[in-house]
Specification:
- Helix content is 0%, strand content 46%.
- Strands 1, 2, 3, 4, 5, 6 and 7 form a 7-stranded mixed sheet that branches.
- The two termini are 17 Å apart.
- The relative contact order is 0.16.
């Protein structure tokens, strides 16, 4: 996406030299623009025109192209819910933080911010229909909340390939980027002195069979429960909505599991 990185500088402001700058004009002239750093096609800087509202402002615009030392800049008008004004050569502008820098943008899962400079890398939103907080990592939206689930019932299998128990899971679904941290925990035993294993399968945007990431144990005494936990850094996922489901297998005998838990944290 173009202009996805929000660039910032300290103590930069000035006066509009256009006389006037039409409401739809995209070329801003100002002597003080020479103090802005260069802005390339991957960046933008937020300016507020007529910030104290002496004319028909304020209006937030994004500088999307600027050469260091230049007194001119290319701008995109009417950003962050503002509308175009027609500033004269006596109207001021200022570069500084806007509400979007501090307050999570409220939207729905179908109305996420878009357009030139939006979303920008590091932008956070809150989706009112999903109740999810998300951050944009420059490529994908990633859920900020971790998700966990537990199944307490004691259940068993003699399967030697990963499968569901009578109560499947536990499972959680998150909006992820390409990386997550997964923790699985359980109490388990076996009818014999055999390996009992728990793993994770991924479905949704990513397809990953169980068996890559495993928590394994062999009881010292057949039928005696032990507890264990393992955490895994998982990369190479396909960004989007991914579901993580616990699966179970044994090398021999009958495996039993209870108090099964999964916790997944998306990594921006």
């Amino acid at each position: 996406m173009a202009n996805e990185t929000r660039k910032r500088a300290n103590a930069v402001s000035g006066v509009v030299d256009n006389n006037p700058l039409a409401a739809g004009g995209t070329s801003l002239a100002s002597t003080e623009l020479s103090a802005l750093p260069a802005v390339d096609a991957t960046e933008h800087m937020a300016l507020t025109l007529d910030q104290i509202g002496t004319g028909n402002g304020p209006e937030i615009v994004y500088v999307t192209a600027h050469t260091a030392g230049s007194t001119g800049a290319t701008i995109v008008r009417g950003r962050e819910g503002t509308t175009g004004v027609s500033p004269t050569s006596t109207m001021t502008w200022v570069h500084g933080p806007t509400a979007a820098d501090f307050v999570p943008f409220h939207c729905t899962s179908t109305t996420r911010p878009s357009g030139t400079g939006l979303p920008y890398e590091g932008m956070t939103i809150y989706e009112t229909d999903t109740n999810l907080s998300l951050i944009y990592n420059g490529t994908n939206w990633v859920q900020l909340d971790s998700e966990g689930a537990t199944v307490t019932t004691s259940e068993s299998t003699a399967a030697t390939s990963y499968t569901d128990l009578a109560t499947s899971g536990p499972a959680v679904t998150l909006v992820t980027g390409t990386k997550v941290l997964i923790t699985i925990t359980s109490e388990y035993t076996n009818s014999g002195i055999n390996i009992t294993a728990m793993s994770i399968a991924v479905s949704g945007a990513t397809t990953l069979a169980a068996g890559t990431y495993e928590l394994k144990s062999m009881p010292v005494v057949a039928g005696q429960y032990s507890s264990g936990s393992a955490s895994f850094y998982v990369s190479g996922l396909t960004a989007g909505s991914n579901t993580f489901t616990a699966k179970y297998a044994v090398v021999g005998g009958i495996g039993y599991w209870l108090k099964r838990h999964i916790l997944v944290q998306a990594i921006p």
